[in-house]
Amino acid sequence: xxxxxxxxxxxxxxxxxxxxxxxxxxxxxxxxxxxxxxxxxxxxxxxxxxxxxxxxxxxxxxxxxxxxxxxxxxxxxxxxxxxxxxxxxxxxxxxxxxxxxxxxxxxxxxxxxxxxxxxxxxxxxxxxxxxxxxxxxxxxxxxxxxxxxxxxxxxxxxxxxxxxxxxxxxxxxxxxxxxxxxxxxxxxxxxxxxxxxxxxxxxxxxxxxxxxxxxxxxxxxxxxxxxxxxxxxxxxxxxxxxxxxxxxxxxxxxxxxxxxxxxxxxxxxxxxxxxxxxxxxxxxxxxxxxxxxxxxxxxxxxxxxxxxxxxxxxxxxxxxxxxxxxxxxxxxxxxxxxxxxxxxxxxxxxxxxxxxxxxxxxxxxxxxxxxxxxxxxxxxxxxxxxxxxxxxxxxxxxxxxxxxxxxxxxxxxxxxxxxxxxxxxxxxxxxxxxxxxx
Amino acid sequence: xxxxxxxxxxxxxxxxxxxxxxxxxxxxxxxxxxxxxxxxxxxxxxxxxxxxxxxxxxxxxxxxxxxxxxxxxxxxxxxxxxxxxxxxxxxxxxxxxxxxxxxxxxxxxxxxxxxxxxxxxxxxxxxxxxxxxxxxxxxxxxxxxxxxxxxxxxxxxxxxxxxxxxxxxxxxxxxxxxxxxxxxxxxxxxxxxxxxxxxxxxxxxxxxxxxxxxxxxxxxxxxxxxxxxxxxxxxxxxxxxxxxxxxxxxxxxxxxxxxxxxxxxxxxxxxxxxxxxxxxxxxxxxxxxxxxxxxxxxxxxxxxxxxxxxxxxxxxxxxxxxxxxxxxxx
Lengths: 438, 330
Known about the structure:
The complex is a heterodimer of chains A (438) and B (330).
Chain A: H1 2-24, E1 39-45, H2 51-69, E2 72-78, H3 80-93, E3 99-103, H4 107-113, H5 121-126, H6 135-138, E4 151-156, E5 158-163, H7 164-169, H8 179-191, E6 195-198, H9 204-217, H10 234-248, H11 264-270, E7 274-280, H12 283-288, E8 296-299, E9 316-317, E10 319-325, H13 332-342, H14 345-354, H15 362-365, H16 373-385, E11 386-387, H17 395-414, H18 421-433
Chain B: H1 2-15, H2 25-62, H3 83-89, H4 94-127, H5 135-147, H6 150-160, H7 167-175, H8 191-215, H9 220-228, H10 233-244, H11 246-262, H12 265-271, H13 282-292, H14 296-329
């Protein structure tokens, strides 16, 4: 009897303890501390051709950091498909990494959650000051008028990649600088039996990046200056229609691309089936698919006038990765040191070379490595003709709603349905209605 | 209840050695009655922990305005009252309209999928009742779709449904010339049929398995007697097989219905985050309404509505089928 009672009491205590610990996991909203100064957890985004490659690139640098500071960094490379969900979960539970990479377009959305350490002038001073970074990259670190939620780490820009052999066969001497030229060149390319331009029609984010640039070229914005969605502006409608028309009317994007969402258009380009590709920092990716550097050229993305610049001559978004610190890290000092290390001139050169991206740090950009013909196209684009995606808290909803609308329009075009100003407007109107009321 | 059980147990207690009778009688009784509950307590608590608490939290979330601004500290999220529910069921507004559309799509999809799964599964099970060479092999083969990991199976279908290099278009267009041009299966209106195909392919082996097990319990004599009476194959199926499988079918259809209605993996792997309108199943729709747009309050409200709907359907189904059984038994 007594033994049974003891067992029962034990079981009850155990389950109570379990219950207590499980519930204790919730929102520990305490700020950060320096309780565990010897370790850091770092979530890196997947920048290389595979996660294994990323580990190979990053581990030696982390070892170097450990030698300098004695802080051991636990690395986890998170695939893009999981990264945002993982960050949201970490935010919700309050149990996340100390330092993490974020897509720079998420900066304002994540800033609104309040989970990331704001980079005020005091924090910036710890990593050498705000002036070390290129302006365009800083433009994509959070909402205007607020302290940035993250620090630029790698910068990328869209460029027009073209297959030199296909161009030569079709008798095209130089890459198109305007959309009209591109469409005209398309006819010559199609005559040679190749497809003209690739697109990821079912990839919501890719769609957003392109229609954003087209909107700029039409002198319009998806958000009004006070941050309200403005998707049905006639200029926005024209911009989206121009992009979808590349498939629907101009027939330079093959209809099959409407269902592409896993970078199949990059493969088509690498295999020599398709003459052109609009992509960000594709060099490493193309190489891993067996296309050598000498087979393709890189030119700025076409603009309506032929000369990229600011405003209506914008030809790329400011693409890139930011590095951020989780506010309730237990090693805030260490985390800041780590950000300083990752954004130091030397590390910037090493990492951006490995990932064929452009350093957002001015001093590192000077390096000869980033002045090659291909890199200078990207660098110039970033410096002169790239614009940051809207830095609004509802950016993530915007990507989903409008990206899906464009996906559906591509599906219509592929099925042979007419894409008209009205149908584009209706799709965008629906997208706008899905946006949060605030 | 306690008054009736206590006396019957009395002799047992009296038999325990060393028990002092009079003074400890009352506490002893409480303890005796309490012990089973005490022993149940851990299980109860764990049940609470793994089952009920998440559900309760989900319901609580549905009454909060849990957007990205509040997720790092839930307690600060303002109460939304029935705001999230109003938004979800306001069918004139875009959110409610989209939810209703998604609901209709899901109902149509579920009815078709469950119907086909059951039909194919039952037909296959009945054919497999005859003994013939290779029967075991075929039975095992039939179960493969059910045994495959969902992701591997569905991603294979994604490749087969591709527009340019997919097997489906190759067969339908290139070989059989059934269509004048290659069709899109993963975007546009055809995606409904693509989804249905994969769902049925994945679901019917389960129906097959369960019906096959049910068939083993039907006595052979019934068929022999029926055959003597001149009943043909179809008559036998209608008069013997189906009535005997009634109980099995009842559970099978309910389970298939719930699984199919709630299926998330198949549409998600097939179409990704943004499903085409014609195949916008409710589970992915809710995921999009909460995770992708960072509005967990609305997502929870939609989930609770879905839960209520499924509870009602299940309840009505159980009442109807059990009443049917009672009258047929009489």
